[in-house]
Amino acid sequence: MDRKTKNILNLLTVAVLGVLLWLAKGHLDGYKIQILNLIAINIILALSLNLIYGFTGMFSLGHAGFMAIGAYVCSILIMTPGQKEMLFILDAPYPWVQAAQAPFFVAVLLGGLIAAAAGIAVGIPLLRLGDDYLGIATLGFAEIVRVFANNLPRLTNGALGFKGIPDYANIWWNFGWCLLTLYFVMRIVNSNFGNTLKAIRDDETAATAMGINVFKYKLISFAMGAFFAGVGGALLGSLLTTIDPKMFLFILTFNILMIVVTGGLGSITGSVLAGIGITILLEWLRFVENPISIGNFYIAGVPGMRMVVFSLALLFIILFRREGLMGTREITWEGLAARIGKRGNSK
User: Fold this and answer.
1) How many domains does the chain have?
2) Which of 61, 108, 277, 291 is the most buried (most CB within 10 A)?
3) Would you say residue 164 lies in a domain?
4) CB 74 within 8 A of CB 229
5) Do the strands 162-163 and 297-299 form a parallel or antiparallel pair, or are they unpaired?
C-alpha cells in the first residue's frame, strides 16, 4: 500500500473520530464525557511511558513527577492573577508566579517542555543506572517532586494545591493532543531513530559495539517521554480543575504502567486499546467499593478494592500472558488489507 493511500485512510479515520466525538458531545451526559476525556489523557500517558519503557527498555517509575510538573506549570499559567491572589492563603505567591499568564495551548506546551527539561536534568545522572536501579531512582525523583510541591507554598500553594483551575481541557483539546502524541510516537518508532531505540532495548552491549551513542539516545527518549507525561499532567489538571501534592502519588504511575503492560510493551496499538479498556473498567468497577446486599447477605464497601482487582489482573497477565494484549504487534492498514484479501479468497 502506497503512502498516499495510507494518508487518505488516516485522514478519513480522524474525520470519523471527529464526527463520533461531535455526536458524543451532543448526546452523552457529563459523566460519560469525563470518561472519554480520561481515555484520551491516559492514552497520551501510556504512549509516553511506552516510548521510555517499551521501545527503549528503560524501567522508569517517575511519570507521576513529570505529570506533577506539567500540571503545576499549566495551572499557574492559565489561572488569572485574581484567582491566584485568593488561592494563596498560606503565603503570598512569588511576583512572577502572580503575574504569569499564557493561552491554554502555550501553557500545556510549556508544561511539557519544563517536564522534558526536568527529564534531561535527572536523566543525565540516573540513566547510567540499569534496570531495577533506574526504576528505584526515578521513583525517588517523583517523590522529591511531590515533597517540593508540598513545601513550596509561594509556588505551589503547599498542601492546599490549586482549586478552580479553568476547565479548558475539553474533549477537543484532549483528543487533539492525543492524536498529536500518537502521530509523533508513530513517526519516531517507525524511523531510523526508533530502530536505534529498539536495538538499545534488545541488546545495549551490542548497540554500543555497533558505535551507537547509547546514553544520548536514551536521554533523548527519556526527555520525549517526560514531555508527553507533562502534557498529560497539564491536561489532567485542567480537566479536574483541582490539583494537590497527594494527587501525584506512586499509584498514578502504577495506573499508567498497568495500561502499558496490559497493552504490550513495544506496541502503540496495545497502549491505545488498553488505554480505552482499562479507563472504562476502572470506572465500571467502582461498584465493588460500594456496599453490596444479596438477600440477607451484606458486604460492606471497601475503598480501593477496584485497584486490588486490577492488581490481581495485572499479576495474572504477567504470569500467563507476559507479552500483553498485543505483544509487539501493531494494527496497520497493510495488515487489515491482507486479512480482507484472505477472507475474499477463501469465499
Assistant:
1) 1
2) 108
3) yes
4) no
5) unpaired
**Single pTM value for the model:** 0.91
| Continuous segment of H or E residues that includes residue 175 | helix 171-189
Tell me the C-alpha distance between 288 and 306, whole Å.
6
Tally of residues, the chain? 347
Could you list the residue range(s) of the whole structural domain that residue 261 is in? Answer: 13-286+304-346
Q: pLDDT tens digit string along 134-185? A: 888 999 999 999 999 999 999 999 889 999 999 999 999 999 999 999 999 9
Quick one: the chain helix, strand, coil %, rounded to 5? 75, 5, 20
Q: How many helices (H) and strands (E) does the chain have?
A: 16, 4
- The pairs formed by 12-17 with CB atoms below 8 angstroms and a separation of 24 or more are 14/179, 17/175, 17/179
Grid cell digits, residue 108: 500545556
**What is Dmax (Cα atoms) for the chain?**
74
Backbone angles phi, psi at 252, to 5 degrees: -65, -45
294 three-class SS: strand
State the DSSP H helix or E strand holding residue 137, giving kind and residue range, or none if neither: helix 131-151
Helix (H) or strand (E) holding 242: strand 242-243
Say what angle helices 104-126 and 171-189 make with each other, to 10 degrees: 40
Does residue 295 fall inside a structural domain?
Answer: no
Query: Is 296 among the domain residues?
Result: no
